DNA sequence: CTCCGGGGCGCAAACGTTTGCGCCTATGCA
DNA sequence: TGCATAGGCGCAAACGTTTGCGCCCCGGAG
């Protein structure tokens, strides 16, 4: 692999000049420029970003920590972040932590050594060890999607409480009274806030908020939780359910069907996240959408700001930006069943 | 940020010694070792992988090109590759190409400059320009999931023809005669091979293979394709359909439902890929599973091999490894409908 | 003719590591 | 006592860039 020196030699100029013509960083005689470019061509020279990084002390690379990018929600989040990075001229190192402190720590070390310019962290666990490790990391960092207990870092997320309320009020508007909630892991701020939104919405109008059961944010978790809900409360089973993410909502759909009930006639279902496939469940899933793209853009913007600040050693305050979620209504919460299905209202409205 | 020199100074040794104790690359007196480690601690020293990379001419980073990691199938593939990389001590740069030649080219340049050790490429398009750009890239490279026309590189993929046959023969075993196929983009080898498998299976037993329509590998594409199939062939509509990926299968499910038909009673459906959510559609989707993890491991193993070979300048043959797909049967192709639904056979068996 | 200014370019240090070579000291053996 | 040997360590070059400083030359003004 040829280096800048080879180019310089071939073009009959100094490496300084080569560097300057490639970076357009000072004026060079057109004739010289041409010679250099030609030399670059014939040698197939590709500048070394690693040497450059060493010199300028910046890698134009950022690291992204997620629990598991095969979870559709995180997949879409990663995608949005990657897009923002691409637009800003940054590359993205993808790191799955599996919510495992050890694995996260390894990645934090690697990223530090690789001198990434910053970190975007979407964690799903409030494990003390994990947040401690993050706190000990000197890299510029912004949290996305959910805050982390005990970690003071800028954070961009949606208003989970509001999202929970949105979902629940929508279900109430359908006339449903017994509205259950399938929460996520209990130690997760974002999940608990959604649950809190659900509870607040119910309490606001004096409805009971006793139909709460927790899942683990997986489809199977939602399935199991919903089965439990239907079994334990056979007498006064819920007529609607708000699942704290779409995966669990899909599991819930399945459980409802297996119980011989119909969605939305017998049980209306609302999810959270608006993953792409939410429009293709059977029936299509009503859900609370997060503005993924805006979140990613905001997070990256802040991160780059922090990186600049880091260079000038100015401290930046750790703020939190709350974006607003939006309800996307689909069939799983229609007031009436679809035409192909016998119309029936399965409860007192 | 302190460097190895600072550590050396504080510990009262040479940088050579510091380097050697950190890398355990030659024996050092325990007392000296301790002094060094202590200095590392108090300074919070983190070695620079970029300086190291410059020196040793290796970054321990690989790049992965995919069309779009928010597609669940690619999300899972990326995850599997990331896992393999992590285990091997490599980091992963994620690059979404969007099947856009320009974007791919930018990434190829960036990756070359960043001196990634190798590339794993999952492309979804046989665009001539894209494959030409790939061919012009000097980096060690292995193709995963699908071969690319005009590109001679090692490739690990599943036997798409066999997969297509598997799906189709399964449907025939259910007694279905009018088996349609929703193909993917026509310029895509992998998709065409699945279609070919479908055709072969039918021809083998003398069934007609005229029910073919093409989608674009998206859920909506599958939906549209299936609608067309049901509309155009109302008289002799298919009693089964093989969709060339799960996303399209999900769209097909929706179209079938909207037409007032039932799966699998009226139309049995089989997908391809076995994405995680395939188990949570309504009804759960029968599909052809690819051994994602094995593919990822094999691809990385080959890539690392190539990287080694590159160092020793030995040429390596461009072989193709065919892994075998496996049918995962679920409700969308059960012989009998589930208990909760009236049992009925919607066609002459 | 002298002087000044500016355009075009080169020298060499520096970024933070790794590593071949070789020095020094202590030890074992004759 | 002398010598070979080995263990412990340091010197300095090299990896491929960027960039401050400064040299040289040419043209215009006085």
Characterise this structure:
The structure is a homodimer of 349-residue chains. Chain A has 349 residues and is of the alpha/beta class. Helices cover 44% and strands 15% of the residues of chain A. Chain A is built from 12 helices and 12 strands. The relative contact order of chain A is 0.11. The interface between A and B is large, with 55 and 55 residues. Chain A binds a DNA duplex (30 and 30 nucleotides) through residues 3-5, 13-17, 19-20, 23, 25-29, 32, 47-57.
SSE layout and pairings?
The structure is a homodimer of 349-residue chains.
Chain A: H1 4-11, H2 15-23, H3 30-43, H4 49-56, E1 61-66, H5 72-88, E2 91-96, H6 101-113, E3 118-121, H7 128-135, E4 141-144, E5 155-158, H8 160-173, E6 179-183, H9 189-204, E7 212-214, H10 219-232, E8 240-243, H11 246-258, E9 268-273, E10 286-289, H12 292-312, E11 320-323, E12 326-328
Parallel strand pairs in A: 1-2, 1-3, 3-4, 4-5, 5-11, 6-7, 6-8, 8-9, 9-10
Antiparallel strand pairs in A: 10-12
Helix pairs in contact in A: 1-2, 1-3, 5-12, 6-7, 8-9, 10-11
The structure holds a DNA duplex (30 and 30 nucleotides).
């Amino acid at each position: 692999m040829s280096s800048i020196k080879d180019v310089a030699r071939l073009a009959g100029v100094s490496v300084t000049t080569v560097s300057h013509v490639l970076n357009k960083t000072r004026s060079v005689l057109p004739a010289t420029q041409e010679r250099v470019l030609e030399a670059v061509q014939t040698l197939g020279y590709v500048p070394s970003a690693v040497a450059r990084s060493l010199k300028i002390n910046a890698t134009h690379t950022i690291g992204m920590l997620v629990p598991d990018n095969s979870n559709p929600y995180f997949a879409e989040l990663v995608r949005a972040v990657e897009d923002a990075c691409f637009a800003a001229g940054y590359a993205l190192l993808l790191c799955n932590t599996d919510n495992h402190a050890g694995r996260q720590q390894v990645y934090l070390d690697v990223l530090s050594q690789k001198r990434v310019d910053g970190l975007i962290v979407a964690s799903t666990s409030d494990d003390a060890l994990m947040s401690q490790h993050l706190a000990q990391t000197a890299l510029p960092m912004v949290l996305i999607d959910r805050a982390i207990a005990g970690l003071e870092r800028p954070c961009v997320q949606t208003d989970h409480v509001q999202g929970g309320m949105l979902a629940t009020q929508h279900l109430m508007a359908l006339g449903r009274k017994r509205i259950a909630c399938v929460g996520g892991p209990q130690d997760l701020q974002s999940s608990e806030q959604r649950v809190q939104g659900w509870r607040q919405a119910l309490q606001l109008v004096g409805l009971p908020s006793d139909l709460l059961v927790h899942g683990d944010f997986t489809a199977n978790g939602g399935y199991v939780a919903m089965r439990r809900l239907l079994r334990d409360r056979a007498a006064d089973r819920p007529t609607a359910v708000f699942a704290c993410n779409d995966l669990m909502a899909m599991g819930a759909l399945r459980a409802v069907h297996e119980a011989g009930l119909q969605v939305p006639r017998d049980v209306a279902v609302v999810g959270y996240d608006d993953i792409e496939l939410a429009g293709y469940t059977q029936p299509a899933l009503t859900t609370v959408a997060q503005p993924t793209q805006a979140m990613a853009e905001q997070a990256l913007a802040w991160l780059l700001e922090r990186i600049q600040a880091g260079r000038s050693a100015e401290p930046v305050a750790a703020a939190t930006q709350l974006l607003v979620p939006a309800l996307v209504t689909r069939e799983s919460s229609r007031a009436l069943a679809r035409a192909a299905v016998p119309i029936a209202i399965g409860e007192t409205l």
